[in-house]
Fold this sequence. Notes:
Blueprint: E1 2-6, H1 10-21, E2 25-29, E3 34-35, E4 41-44, H2 51-55, E5 58-59, E6 65-68, H3 83-91, E7 95-97, E8 118-123, H4 125-137, E9 141-146, H5 151-170, E10 201-202, E11 205-207, E12 230-232
Parallel strand pairs: 1-2, 1-4, 3-5, 4-6, 6-7, 8-9
Antiparallel strand pairs: 7-8, 10-11, 11-12
The structure holds NADP nicotinamide-adenine-dinucleotide phosphate.
Amino acid sequence: MKITVIGRGKVGGGLADRWEQAGHTVTRVGRDGGDSSDADVVLVAVPSGQIAAALGKVYGLAGKVAIDATNPFAGRDETFESLSHEVKSIIGGPVAKAFNTNFADLYDQINEQRVRPSNLYASEDGARAATEQLIRDAGYDPVYVGGLDQAGALEDHLAGLEATIARSGLGRFFYRYAKPGELKRPKGRSSRARPRVAPYRHPGLSVLRMVDQAPPAPPRTTPSLSIVKVAPAPRSGS
Length: 238
Ligand SMILES: NC(=O)c1ccc[n+]([C@@H]2O[C@H](COP(=O)([O-])OP(=O)(O)OC[C@H]3O[C@@H](n4cnc5c(N)ncnc54)[C@H](OP(=O)(O)O)[C@@H]3O)[C@@H](O)[C@H]2O)c1
């Protein structure tokens, strides 16, 4: 895909890097503007109060598929239902809201995660396929939340609950929405942590051998609290 990224900061620059690594051709546009005529998709990643100014300096935008990643931390034009609707009013093509609920500081840790983090997005039908592909190519799994009427909810979600969670101690975080079953352990791994204790001797008690199939652990010299069942110690000689 040919992508024009408007805004060369953490989000724009970070996603441009990841998309290039995935094989896309990316043009990075800053305050001087540029030409997006050959773009298949345009990413808007500037402070919310700069949307109109930034897009106003880019040629060839009309009718393009746009992904809006902005959040309302730098003001917003309240005449629009959401920041994505403002983007839509300027570009005119199908628009999606995506990447606004994912922390850019963590882009370089996506590949290290055990499962793909989720990426909530709202989209008009004409932008869905491209947005889903670019979410995947950035390393996330897309989670569709509905049409562009949900864009404001995603903006509020980030500015509200997610910011509160981050401030309350978790810091920047990944999240994962999963259908029941998706988070199941791989076959062969028990869902219950079975006690893994070796027999040990104690005056008057002996601990029954474990039922676990795992290889026996080395003998312990101190008793653990993982005693599962007790029986009288056999008398010597019997
Ligand atoms: N950081 C995050 O984790 C995160 C996550 C999701 C969404 N967002 C949202 O994504 C947007 C970008 O955030 P960011 O973290 O990437 O911010 P950032 O690192 O500060 O980058 C913003 C970029 O926008 C450029 N810019 C500002 N005004 C412009 C204009 N009039 N024309 C063209 N470019 C302009 C800036 O250029 P200069 O360098 O020349 O100032 C800068 O390169 C914001 O709306 C933010 O709320 C951020």
